[in-house]
Every structure is written in C-alpha cells, then in structure tokens.
Amino acid sequence: MSGLAELVEELTIETRAGDLRGDSLLQQLRAEIGSNLGRTKAGASSGSPVPLNVDAFALWEDITGQIASMFVSATDRRPDKDPEVNLLAWWAVFSAAVYRHETVQLQHDVAGERLESWAQRIRDHFAAPRTVEVMVPCPNCGYERIVLGEADQAEVFALVAVVKGTTVTVVCRNPVCKDAFGEPSQWVGERQLEELGRRVGVRVDHRALMTAVNSPVESTWDPSDDMKGDLAEPFNPADPAHAALLDTPTD
C-alpha cells in the first residue's frame, strides 16, 4: 500500500526530490499545455494562438481518460473534470476496500502497474532527450562522418540516436540526406532500427541505444559507386562543392 500511496501523492499532490518539493506530475503536465490555451504570442493578434504542445495534450487526454474510467468503475458516479479529484476519490474507495479486506493481491498489482505507468510516462515526457552517435555509414547518403557548423566546425558521425522516454529515433544529420519519399532520413522504433541494421550490415541494438550505450562496430556494408559522398571525406556544408548539393534534387 505504501508504494501506491506514494504514486498517488506524486501524481496528484506533490513531487519530492530529497528535501525539495514540487508540483505534482499531473499539475506539471497541465501547466505545459494549459499555459498555451487561449493565449497569444507577444505582439501577435488575438487570432494567432500560441501553438499547442500536441504531445503533452495527447498524453494528458490518454492518462486523464484512464483515470476517469477507473473512477467510474470504482464509484459508479460521473467523473469530475479535475483528474486529481477523480484519482484521490478512487484512492479513498480502494483504501477503504483494503481496510475491509475486500481486495486481493492481483488488484494491488494491477493498480500499482497502472499508476507507475502513468507516472513514468509523464516523467519521460519532461526528461531531456539523450543522444548517442551511431558509428556506421548512413545507408541513404553514404556518409559516415560529416562536418557541422560554419565558424566553429566540428566533425561528427552522420547518424545519431535520439532517446526520448521509451522511443529511439536514429536520424542522419547530413542536410541533403533524404529517404525514398524525399523526407529527411530517420528510423523510428525497434522495427525500423532492425531494418537500418540490415541495410548497413550491423546490429543496431535498440536496448543498447535505450540506455545511451554505444560500442564501436565494424560495418560489412559497402556503399555503391553511384552514391553521393566519399566516406573518407566528411560532408561539409561550408565547402562550396558540398554546399552545391543542397540545391541538387534527390531521387
């Protein structure tokens, strides 16, 4: 019960980190999307609303909808518009049932998994993305390394994995690199990462990237002669010869 109580508190009352206390997870999520609703950009007309954080709103709708359903199942009453009220009311009903010995361990386990899932999804939403370079050539443009920046140039690997919550996306940082549909090259999720691995002849490990761990690997992939780029020379947007590629249509 103590674990459930802590999750309910974190979702509805406050978050804690040592001696520090902050807004609850649901309050934080509401603030991120609510601060944009009905407001406008500074200096803009009333018809120019601040863009809505779509990801935050979708997460809010999903979690609060599940809370409302859980409240209705426990109380058979119409849910309140405030998800904190609904979750606290469910917790009161559930705690009373526990006190009367009317619950079984499976119900505790299911409730704990559900609340932990909500809390973790909100934590993940606010967590800064982690990145790690993928040290193999991009199968779409042929480059393994590119040069970024104009004044302060830096040579980096073309492919980089971006880990956000439980989602891993590998993107190519070459500005001229496109996929078969003319979109910037990227691979999202475990299935597409497996396809990327097959194309470059290595295993692109989803779990390793999830923990931002990357070990150098040798690729068996040999880019064809007709592909743009020379793996021995990084792509450099500041080089006129390379910059010309930015205006070259790609198939």
Topology:
Layout: H1 2-12, E1 14-17, E2 20-23, H2 25-34, H3 54-75, H4 83-99, H5 105-126, E3 130-134, E4 145-148, E5 154-157, E6 159-164, E7 167-172, E8 186-188, H6 189-200, H7 206-210, H8 240-243
Antiparallel strand pairs: 1-2, 3-6, 4-5, 6-7, 7-8
Describe the protein in words:
This protein has 251 residues and is α+β, with helices and mostly antiparallel strands. Helices cover 41% and strands 14% of the residues. The chain has 2 domains: 2-126, no CATH class; 130-247, no CATH class. The chain contains 8 helices and 8 strands. The strands form 3 sheets. The chain has a 4-stranded antiparallel β-sheet with strand order 3-6-7-8. The chain has a two-stranded antiparallel ribbon with strand order 1-2. Strands 4-5 form a two-stranded antiparallel sheet. Helix 1 (2-12) runs antiparallel to helix 4 (83-99). The longest helix has 22 residues, at 54-75. Mean pLDDT is 77; it is low at 37-46, 212-235 and 242-251.
Low-confidence stretches: 37-46, 212-235, 242-251
Work out the strand percent.
5-15%
Radius of gyration: 24 Å
* Total helical elements: 8
What integer is the average pLDDT?
Answer: 77
**E-strand count:** 8
SSE string:
HEEHHHHEEEEEEHHH
> In this structure, how is the largest beta sheet organized?
4 strands, antiparallel
Q: Within the largest sheet, what's the order of strands?
A: 3-6-7-8
**Helix share, percent:** 40-55%
Shape: elongated
Intertermini distance: 59 Å
- How does the helix and strand content classify structurally? alpha+beta
**Number of self-contained structural domains:** 2
